[in-house]
Amino acid sequence: MNEEERRELADLLLPNITTTRDEIEARYPARKLKEGAKVTRFAPSPTGFMHIGNLESAFLDYIFAIQSDGYFYVRLEDTDQERYVEKADQLIQETLVNYGIMPNEGAFSSGEYGPYVQSKRQEIYQIYIKDLLIHGLAYPCFMSKEELQEIREGQELRKEAIGVYGHYAVDRDLSLEEIKKHLSQGDSYVIRIKSPGDMNKQVILHDLIKGDITLPENIIDEVIMKKDGLPTYHFAHVIDDHLMHTTVVIRGDEWIPSYPKHLQLCQILGFKTSKYAHYAPLTKKENGNVRKLSKRKDPEFSVSYYDEAGIPVEAVKLFLATIINTNFEEWYLQNSDKSYLDFPFSFKKMPTGGTLFDTEKLNNICRTYFSRLKAEEIYDDGLKFYQKYDEEFYQIMLANKEKVICFLDIERNGKRPRKDIATYKDIKKECSYIFSDLFYQDETSVREKEVDFDLLNQYMEVYSDSDSQDEWYQKIQLLASNHSYAKSVKEYKNTPDVYKGHIGDICEALRYVVTGKTQTPNLYDILKILGKDEIKKRINFYQK
Question: Which of 279, 312, 347 is the last residue of a domain?
Fold first, then answer.
């Protein structure tokens, strides 16, 4: 076709598009960025629930933008209308707000480079498509599903590249008259790019994480506009990243094979390409093998799991940080007074292969995180959790605020703070025995461990709630001496035959009787919270 025919074709296919490419480019001027500043985007499809991979992606985009004094924006990629799930966009927004991953601009706020929802940008995509048609770089394709399937099956048998290209692109060189005939017959069509690719050539992806990757050049005449007039993902995201001036595209490495087509689209359109950083997938060990984290098999795949499990959002982010940079965990352990944003994240420190989702590491991160919080903070956040998931314990916490905070404050401010709490659920698990109602309704409170009750009863005769910790311990030492128990473990180990046991055995018996546990925070503080009358009551309860 000559230029006049191409213009006629473009007007025939897209008669409502009158804005030119130059005019749309003028609406999206270059951003004013500082040296080294990155513009990143989180671009989810509203097609279902938020999973941990989505969260990792958003977290990465947020970190690298904010640490470079750049821009982080959210774009909803909803051109696949058949997969759209109602309120999925609302869930995405709620998750970002909950995790404090706040964009500078985007679909849930505003900004100068919108609309940030692809279905609202249809005219913009069609402006570029019309320009490609005018320049002979795209064409309408009228092939039916049956024809395409037949081609595909033949290519699979011959082990050829799958797609429309070369002699398979039967509509690529249709004349204007032939196209008009199809249109007069009401034949549906898509618009494809005219790929200039050569299967004997290669392109190099300069990946910020994985280094240089050599890939075959794209030869496929990719669809850029579907039958419904909306663009394909590949075309739309290239246009959007160009107009929104994205400097770094951070995405999962499953997109690496798509890079040649994205590069080619940029070249055909005359765009400067963004830089790319492809991160490794989250994996899990199972029966000695390593597999990708699965939404069907792994509850932790869904972001909602962490809220329901009582895992704080900050702990999840810390865990993601350990996944993102291999040297973060050591830094975090050594910098208790700093935020994760103080850590210098780097693409070069990101793993190039599969990233193991280590639940034990998550657990340890959570314990460390809780150990650094004030008791009041744990109480306040825990209260919100139980209000949502456990009304009974929420009311108990509400009515016993000081008591719970006192318990949470035990062993919290020393050089080695306690690490018995890893989730908000653990608050109830660890402190339920300080509440009489919960202690006595628990059938495990009736125990059968052998205890020297004469010893405990004599101890209660001298116990006082007003004793200092030293006075409290001295009384137990005296009790130990009077009943043939060593006053220290060392003394007992030196001459074990002389003693019934050591002072620790007395403390452990007392701990077991009044709490039902063999491990608790500092016993002295637990006894002060319970009070002398309640301690006596529990000793008597155990003796029955």
Answer: 279
